[in-house]
């Protein structure tokens, strides 16, 4: 299955708690941290909820 590299580029400070929880669920908790995740529909939905806080690219 394909993998995505996600990097947190925005702070969750002042955002709804749901968005902060989504970042934690994706494995992100600090600015400029990256993580590789499987490309599944559930992950895509989580990324859509915090698209303004993350950068998404294809993993190598």
Structure explained in plain terms:
- Keywords: Ribonucleoprotein, Ribosomal protein.
- Pfam families: Ribosomal_L30 (PF00327).
- It comes from Dongia soli.
- With 60 residues, the chain is of the alpha+beta class.
- The chain has one domain (3-58): Ribosomal protein L30/L7 (Ribosomal Protein L30, Chain: A, 2-Layer Sandwich), CATH 3.30.1390.20.
- Helix content is 30%, strand content 27%.
- The chain has 2 helices and 3 strands; from the N terminus they run βαβαβ.
- The chain has helices at 17-25, 41-49, and strands at 3-8, 34-38, 54-58.
- The protein is globular, with a radius of gyration of 11 Å.
Rounded average pLDDT: 96
> Considering the protein shown, what is the CATH homologous superfamily?
Ribosomal protein L30/L7
Number of helices: 2
CATH topology: Ribosomal Protein L30, Chain: A
Model regions low in confidence, pLDDT < 50 over at least 5 residues:
none
Keywords: Ribonucleoprotein, Ribosomal protein
Protein name: Large ribosomal subunit protein uL30
Subunit structure: Part of the 50S ribosomal subunit.
InterPro entries: Ribo_uL30_ferredoxin-like_sf, Ribosomal_uL30_bac-type, Ribosomal_uL30_ferredoxin-like
């Amino acid at each position: 299955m394909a993998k995505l590299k996600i990097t947190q580029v925005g702070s969750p400070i002042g955002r709804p708690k749901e968005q902060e929880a989504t970042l934690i669920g994706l494995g992100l908790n600090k600015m400029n941290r990256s993580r590789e995740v499987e490309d599944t529909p559930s992950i895509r939905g989580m990324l859509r909820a915090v698209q303004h806080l993350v950068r998404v690219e294809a993993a190598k």
